[in-house]
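Example 267, ligand 1,1-dimethyl-prolinium.
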Amino acid sequence: AERNAVGQAVNYQIVGIDPGAGIMTSTKQALEDYDLTDWTLVEGSSSAMTAMLEKALKNEDPIIITGWTPHWMFNKYDLKFLEDPLKSYGDAEEIRTIVRKGLKEDHPAAYEFLDRFNWTADEMAEMMIDIQDGMDPQQAAKKWAEAHKDKVAEWTKGLRSSNGETLKLSYVSWDSEIASTNLAEYVLENELGYNVTSLQVEMGPMWTGVAAGDVDATLAAWMPVTSAAYYDRYIDKVEDVGVNMEGARTGLTVPAYMDIDSIEDLK
Ligand code: PBE
């Protein structure tokens, strides 16, 4: 095959994240759909990926990563998604909240709050940028809640406070979920009186924990594409209480200075 200039420049590598992430599955699908047989998807973590991105940007080097919004990298840097005419990554994603069966009966106020909790990508970005700039996530949650009292009041209106009942949330350490989970934890503790532990786990255990009832909830279900395999496997054993954020997106991402626009250009 004729070698591809961009491919040669980046060593035919796409910089990925944790192997369990849905975006890794979508990217393998994209390699198939676009017949990119020369390419390798490199596993790592989202923090290793953003470190490599920052290094490339500093030198204006080419790089291709598995990216998504909302994420602070899109606020901080000039990046673009590659067009995906074959829709390997689907269209827009939404982030849904999944709770364990029986939560409604056991902790009605927590259940109702989790059912109501939703915010926008711009609102989430405020918190993500503070965390990226070095603020402790719990501190960033407090700051956000104090700056958005109306929203917090809407989520908690009329709910009866708990007396220190314990709750467990779980999440994967993606920047978007670090933000949402810390905010939910902050509101559950400070407005509703729960004692919350948030467990950072891999994507598989995140779902099995809620399905087994060991964990009360997760706010990290990206659908319809990114978490589809887990969602389909576990939906009968959990309860989906709905969308907590609309307008998310995943795809191959490059610095704006790179002279390609579509995944098709990688062939
Ligand atoms: N993400 C961010 C996740 C969901 C949140 C796109 C990396 C995933 O790929 O599963």
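Summary: The two ends are 10 Å apart (CA to CA).
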